[in-house]
Amino acid sequence: MCQIMAQTHKIDQARRLSVAPMMDWTDRHCRYFHRQLSKNALLYTEMVTAPAILHGDRSRLLAYHEAEHPVAVQLGGSEPDLLAEATRICVDAGYDEINLNCGCPSDRVQSGTFGAVLMAHPGLVADCVDAMQSAAGDVPVTVKCRIGIDDQDPTEVLPRFLEKVSAAGVRHFTIHARKAWLQGLSPKENRDVPPLDYPLVLAMKRQFPDLWIGINGGISTLTQANEFLAQGLDGVMIGRSAYQTPSQILLDADHTIWGQARPCADAQSAIELMIPYLEAELSRGTRLNAMTRHMLGLFHGMPGARRWRRLLSENAHKPGAGVAVVRDALAAMIELDPV
Fold it and tell me: Which pLDDT belongs to residue 194?
């Protein structure tokens, strides 16, 4: 029991700042890299569908390095039985949290009646998370959602959604503070065009004080993150900024959010920490650019950043490319090429 409580406390603390699940971005190499910058932030997998886990290459889909903990898996689906079985598999794999996606607006997700479409079906979501929790045991089941979709009135839809789903036992919600327009906007446009409604998410925390409520959408600095925490929200999830400018978000996160020391002195030190991992993965047949593509933005805004990006982009994809490419690019930073 004490071990369970300690683990629960750890994951609750990690949720204060998390890196959003992002398709084609937050794979296991990305997560390992991000873990070198922050030992505390909660990391998420890309969304993986329940049928893919049940019928696909689950060893590949769910692979992660032990160093990634705390790490959560995000599931997509709308069939309670399938989600329950996928949850059991993810729990057995050792994930620290199982998250249900109720916010992705992509065409693939809509055709499968899950993701943001589920904002219109809170009863179904309640059935899904009920089944998932029965399968999860002591591992928390959480939900990531939007404030609404299409012509819905978020001030009416969102509280009903939270009430219905929390009645099924879910206590943790991360809310992307935008509508998703399933008709007329692309997935990319859905990340920028619908206006942000931060006050509504703050109002949900006041209306549901016993729920853990985090916020996502348009947050690009640790200062913003701390402001939301100071206003009473329980956590902040950052997506593109954490990926595209990781040193600006994650390198100072442990100090700014948790009052702890940086896990590495600076961005260059993070690269040195990555070298053994790169070597190990290369020996297993992983291509260098599959890993270094996540590291391109590390020096964003610093002298030499352009040279770093160029040297990795031009050389990491070549057959036989090894860690020398990374070391050469790092050495070139000393020449202080203009950003």
Answer: 83
One domain, residues 224 and 286: no
Provide the residue range defining the domain that includes 156: 2-258
User: DSSP states of 298-315 as a string?
Assistant: TTTTSTTHHHHHHHHHHH
Closest CA to 145 of 222, 71, 245, 76: 76
Is the model more confident about 3 or about 146? 146
Question: At how many degrees (to 10) do helices 323-332 and 305-315 cross?
Answer: 160
Query: Which residue among 30, 90, 102, 104 is the active-site one?
Result: 104
Question: Do 51 and 165 fall within a single domain?
Answer: yes
> Do 105 and 224 belong together in one domain?
yes
d(CA 20, CA 145): 12
CB neighbour class for 88 (10 Å; exposed up to 12, middle 13-18, buried from 19): middle
- For 36, 137, 250, 274, 332, the CA distances from 303, given in Å and listed in that order, are 22, 49, 19, 21, 11
7-47 pLDDT per residue, tens:
566 888 999 999 999 999 999 999 999 999 999 999 999 99
- How much of the chain exceeds pLDDT 90, in percent? 86
Q: At which residue do the structure tokens 């619908």 appear?
A: 194
- pLDDT per position as a tens digit, 256-289: 999 999 999 999 999 999 999 999 999 999 999 9
Cis bond upstream, residue 70 (ω within 30): yes
Side chain identity, residue 226: N
Going by C-beta distance under 8 Å and a sequence separation of 6 or more, which residues neighbour residue 241? 219, 220, 221, 248, 249
Active site residue 264: no
Q: Are residues 254 and 307 in the same domain?
A: no
